[in-house]
Amino acid sequence: MNINRRKFIQNSACLSATRAIACSPNSMMGASHSERTKIEKPVFIATWPFGKFSCEAAVKIANDSGSMLDAIEKGIWVTENDVKNASVGIGGIPNANGQVELDACIMSGPNHNAGSVAGIRGILHPISIARLVMESTPHVMLVGEGAKQFAIANGHPETNLLTTQQKENWQKWQTEQFEKSKKSKPKIDEDHHDTIAMLGLDSKGNLYGGCSTSGWGYKLAGRVGDSPIIGSGLYVDNQVGAAGATGLGENVMRHCGSFLVVEMMRQGASPTEACEMAVNRIAEIDPKNLGNLDINFIALNKAGQHGAAGTSKGFKYSVSSPAGSEVLNAKAMSEKAIGPEGGNRK
Ligand code: ASP
């Protein structure tokens, strides 16, 4: 969807006049219910229904400690600690060699600071290492063995992240791949991946975000997706809003997806509209069609309005504030997303 000139001018004027995004009826066209109601703060949103537990923890931590970065970090811990979650932290699906490799990043809006780790093995909380990179080094990103040694040197013990269940699944996958390879070239499994991307806004209007994943299941060793890449899996702009992504990282990172969503909000789009516009813009220039992109975004603006849109089947996002928590359907943007389990159904 291209934002038309009239709407762009209208929305930009509205935005610069008040910095409140939902001020014209036009800008509310794609707005969800949450974009029309008063928002209590701190508010946290996260990808997928499992993100609700992280968001709830984050609200509590922010209220108790007053630290939004603690809230993002420790909120994400909840998902990283969940052995049953096969796409984040311990219990995550390993790479093709049977090693769990994790990616994470964090951003702090007020000082536009960022930290990130990619392809880190044997460390339970990659989000904490990303925060350490941000706060205690002059760098933004550490990868692989260097990231692991940095984590250990900072008191994060080496941990076995490969659960018995995932080891068994991986062995089965290997056998299947071997059988398939006799007939055709083995393909990377595109069905096993998810991410927690979490965004937060405090009562002072400051924005924060974090992202953590084990990435694409049975990926090639060393593969890094969008999640730890600032601007792709996560982006926070304290003047405007924040966005996070989940889906096939290769299709997000080739388009700087989260940055794109934030820029759409800067032009006056509501969070839901911004996610939709980013997906459509990507689909316009990508050889893959909408149904094959597997990309989903969540967005939160400076006024506390939130939204989401994507192409994956059943994409939902979680919201938590002192007013309570809910899991919302994202705007479904492809036939696949509208399918039996997806779409804008409650
Ligand atoms: N975006 C993640 C990656 O490609 C996976 C996901 O969110 O589904 O590593």
Describe what you observe in this structure.
- There is one protein chain.
- Helix 2 packs antiparallel against helix 3 (68-80), helix 3 (68-80) packs antiparallel against helix 4 (126-136) and helix 8 crosses helix 9.
- The chain has one domain: (Glycosyl)asparaginase (Glutamine Phosphoribosylpyrophosphate, subunit 1, domain 1), CATH 3.60.20.
- It has helices at residues 5-18, 51-65, 68-80, 126-136, 144-153, 164-183, 249-253, 257-266, 271-285, 290-293, 335-338; strands at 43-47, 101-108, 113-121, 141-143, 196-201, 207-213, 234-237, 241-247, 295-301, 306-310, 316-321, 324-329, 331-332.
- The protein is of the alpha+beta class and 346 residues long.
- Residues 1-31 and 341-346 have low confidence and may be disordered.
- The chain starts with a helix and ends in an 8-residue tail after the last helix.
- The strands form 2 sheets. Strands 4-3-2-6-5-1-11-12 form an 8-stranded mixed β-sheet.
- Strand 3 (113-121), helix 4 and strand 4 form a beta-alpha-beta unit.
- The protein contains 11 helices and 13 strands.
- Bound molecules: aspartic acid.
